[in-house]
C-alpha cells in the first residue's frame, strides 16, 4: 500500500516540474520601453486659489465690519507630463496647469522642482512648462503619429490617482477619432484611441509605441453614465504637439491658423438644391476677402472634403483640425467642385486678433468669422469675445468663447461693439461700483454681476 502511494506522488511531482516554466528566459519588450522611458515621465502638481463665491452685499458687509476681504481657498491638481528637451521643457495637458499659481514637478528619482509656464492652449489642451534642473535630464524621443497603425502596441505611463510611474499597456484601438470637448464648444479631432488603461492623473503623460517613442499625449477617457469608465482612452497625436511646441518655443504662444471661410454642414436640401455631388464635407458659403482660402483659389460653393490627408465630414471637423495648425503653415486642401476634385496648397493666416489689456481679470478681443463658426455665434450678436480668464475674482462662471455685449455700471448701461468700446468703458469703472456684464453663450443671454472693489 505504501509503495503505491509513493509511486503516485512521484509521478505527480514530475508532472508539476515538467510544466513549471513556460517561455523560460523570455522578457517582454514592454519592460525595455519602461526602463528607458519612465525616468523622463514626471508628476505635476498645480496649486490655484479661488475666492469663496458670495453675493456682493455680503462681501461689502464682510469688508466693512471685519476690515478684510473674504478669504480664498486653495485647490490642488495632479497630473502627468514628460521631459522632451534636456533644457527642462515638459509637455503636458493644459487642463493640468490651468489657472495655476504654482506648479511643482516631481521626478522619478525623488527630486522636486518649481516649474514655470512657457505657453499653453486651452482649445488644443496642450501646455509646455519648464524646470531649471541641476542634473542631466532624461528625455523622451517624439515619434510620428501619422505612421501608427491600428492594432500596434501602446504603452501609457503616468501618475493615475497620484500613483507615480504607473504603467499600463494595450493596443491602438482606432485613429482619427473625434469627441466633443467637455464645454461643448467644438471637438477634439484626430485623436488616438487606445485600450491601455488611462485614469485621472494620467492626463499629460506619454502614450508610447514599442520602440519607446512618444506617439500621443494621454488626455481623455470615455465614461458611460451608467457603467462609469469603460476603459477607452484618447490621446492627442504627437504630431499636433510638435506643431504646438515649435510655435510656443519660438514665439511664446500658439498663433492659431485662419482659413478665411464661412462654412456650413451639408444637408439633403442643400445638396439637391445646389447640385452638390457629395454628402459630407464643409460647404463654403462665403470667403473672407483677402483671406487664405481666397488667395489659394478656393471658391464659393466648393465643398472642403480633406485637409492634409484627413477627411472632413462636417464643419466641426474642419474648424477643429485647422485650429491644430499654427499660422503660416501650408496645408493641402482638397475640395469637391460639383464633382471635380481639386487640390490647393493654402498658407494659413493668423486667426486671433490682438487681445487687449485685461480688465476685471478678463482678456477679450474682437470676434472673428472662425469664432462665429466655432462657438455658434449669431451674426446679430455684436461685442467682444472672451479670450482668457486671468483672474476669476470677479467674473465667476465666465469662460473663453463667451461674448460680452454690454456693461452695466451702477444701473447705467453701455453697449460693447468692439475692443475699443470695451477699453473705453472698462477702464473708466471706478472702485466700489456694482458691475454687470451682459453675456451670450450658445446664443443665450445671461448676466455676470460683481462688486468692483
Q: If you had to describe this structure to a student in words, what would you say it looks like?
A:
With 453 residues, the chain is an alpha+beta fold. The chain has four domains: 100 residues, Trypsin-like serine proteases (Thrombin, subunit H), CATH 2.40.10; 107 residues, Thrombin, subunit H; 94 residues, PDZ domain (Pdz3 Domain), CATH 2.30.42.10; 97 residues, PDZ domain (Pdz3 Domain, Roll). It is 20% helix and 40% strand. It has ten helices and 26 strands. A six-stranded antiparallel barrel has the order 1-2-3-6-5-4. Strand 11 and strand 12 form a beta hairpin. The longest helix has 17 residues. It is globular, with a radius of gyration of 27 Å. The model has no long low-confidence stretch (mean pLDDT 86). Belongs to the peptidase S1C family. Pfam families: PDZ_2 (PF13180), Trypsin_2 (PF13365). One of its GO terms (biological process) is proteolysis. Keywords: Hydrolase, Protease, Repeat, Serine protease, Signal. This is Serine protease.
At a glance:
With 453 residues, the protein is α+β, with helices and mostly antiparallel strands. The protein folds into 4 domains: 32-131, Thrombin, subunit H (Beta Barrel); 145-251, Trypsin-like serine proteases (Thrombin, subunit H, Beta Barrel); 257-350, PDZ domain (Pdz3 Domain, Roll), CATH 2.30.42.10; 356-452, Pdz3 Domain. It contains 10 helices and 26 strands.
Would you spell out the secondary-structure blueprint of this structure?
Layout: H1 2-18, H2 29-37, E1 41-51, H3 56-66, E2 72-85, E3 89-92, H4 94-97, E4 102-106, E5 112-121, E6 126-131, E7 153-158, E8 166-180, E9 187-194, E10 206-208, E11 214-224, E12 228-237, H5 238-251, E13 257-258, E14 261-265, H6 268-274, E15 282-287, H7 292-296, E16 303-307, E17 310-311, H8 315-322, E18 330-337, E19 340-347, E20 349-350, E21 362-366, H9 369-375, E22 384-389, E23 403-409, E24 412-415, H10 419-426, E25 433-441, E26 444-452
Antiparallel strand pairs: 1-2, 1-4, 2-3, 3-6, 4-5, 5-6, 7-8, 7-10, 8-9, 9-12, 10-11, 11-12, 13-20, 14-15, 15-16, 16-17, 16-18, 18-19, 21-22, 22-23, 23-24, 23-25, 25-26
Amino acid at each position: 500500500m505504501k509503495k503505491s502511494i509513493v509511486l503516485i506522488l512521484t509521478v505527480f511531482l514530475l508532472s508539476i516540474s515538467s510544466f513549471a516554466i513556460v517561455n523560460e528566459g523570455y522578457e517582454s519588450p514592454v519592460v525595455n520601453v519602461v526602463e528607458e522611458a519612465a525616468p523622463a515621465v514626471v508628476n505635476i502638481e498645480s496649486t490655484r486659489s479661488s475666492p469663496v463665491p458670495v453675493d456682493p452685499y455680503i462681501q461689502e458687509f464682510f469688508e466693512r465690519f471685519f476690515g478684510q476681504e473674504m478669504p480664498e481657498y486653495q485647490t490642488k491638481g495632479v497630473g502627468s507630463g514628460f521631459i522632451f528637451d534636456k533644457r527642462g521643457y515638459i509637455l503636458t495637458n493644459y487642463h493640468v496647469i490651468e489657472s495655476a499659481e504654482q506648479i511643482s514637478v516631481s521626478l522619478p528619482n525623488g527630486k522636486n522642482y518649481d516649474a514655470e509656464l512657457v505657453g499653453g492652449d486651452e482649445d488644443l489642451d496642450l501646455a509646455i512648462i519648464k524646470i531649471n534642473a541641476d542634473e542631466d535630464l532624461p528625455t523622451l524621443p517624439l515619434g510620428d503619429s501619422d505612421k501608427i497603425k491600428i492594432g500596434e502596441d501602446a504603452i501609457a505611463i503616468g501618475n493615475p490617482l497620484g500613483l507615480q510611474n504607473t504603467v499600463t499597456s494595450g493596443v491602438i484601438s482606432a485613429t482619427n477619432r473625434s469627441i466633443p470637448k467637455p464645454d461643448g464648444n467644438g471637438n477634439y479631432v484626430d485623436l488616438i484611441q487606445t485600450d491601455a488603461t488611462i485614469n485621472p492623473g494620467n492626463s499629460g503623460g506619454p502614450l508610447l509605441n514599442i520602440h519607446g517613442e512618444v506617439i500621443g499625449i494621454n488626455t481623455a477617457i470615455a465614461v458611460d453614465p451608467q457603467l462609469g469608465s469603460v476603459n477607452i482612452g484618447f490621446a492627442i497625436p504627437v504630431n499636433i504637439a510638435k506643431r504646438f511646441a515649435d510655435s510656443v518655443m519660438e514665439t511664446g504662444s500658439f498663433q492659431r491658423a485662419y482659413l478665411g471661410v464661412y462654412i456650413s454642414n451639408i444637408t439633403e436640401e442643400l445638396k439637391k438644391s445646389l447640385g452638390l455631388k457629395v454628402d459630407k464635407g464643409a460647404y463654403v458659403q462665403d470667403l473672407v476677402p483677402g483671406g487664405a482660402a481666397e488667395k489659394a483659389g478656393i471658391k464659393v460653393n466648393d465643398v472642403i472634403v480633406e485637409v492634409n490627408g484627413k477627411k472632413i465630414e462636417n464643419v466641426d471637423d474642419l474648424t477643429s483640425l485647422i485650429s491644430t495648425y499654427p499660422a503660416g503653415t501650408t496645408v493641402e486642401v482638397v475640395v469637391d467642385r460639383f464633382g471635380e476634385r481639386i487640390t490647393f496648397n493654402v498658407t494659413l493666416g493668423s486667426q486671433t486678433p490682438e487681445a487687449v489689456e485685461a480688465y476685471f481679470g478678463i482678456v477679450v478681443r474682437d470676434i472673428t468669422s472662425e469664432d462665429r463658426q466655432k462657438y455658434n455665434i449669431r451674426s446679430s450678436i455684436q461685442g467682444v469675445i472672451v479670450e482668457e480668464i486671468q483672474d476669476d475674482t470677479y467674473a465667476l462662471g465666465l469662460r473663453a468663447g463667451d461674448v460680452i455685449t454690454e456693461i452695466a455700471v451702477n444701473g447705467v448701461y453701455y453697449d460693447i461693439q468692439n475692443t475699443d468700446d470695451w477699453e473705453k468703458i472698462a477702464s473708466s469703472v471706478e472702485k466700489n461700483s456694482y458691475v454687470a456684464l451682459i453675456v451670450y453663450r450658445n446664443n443665450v443671454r445671461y448676466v455676470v454681476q460683481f462688486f468692483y472693489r
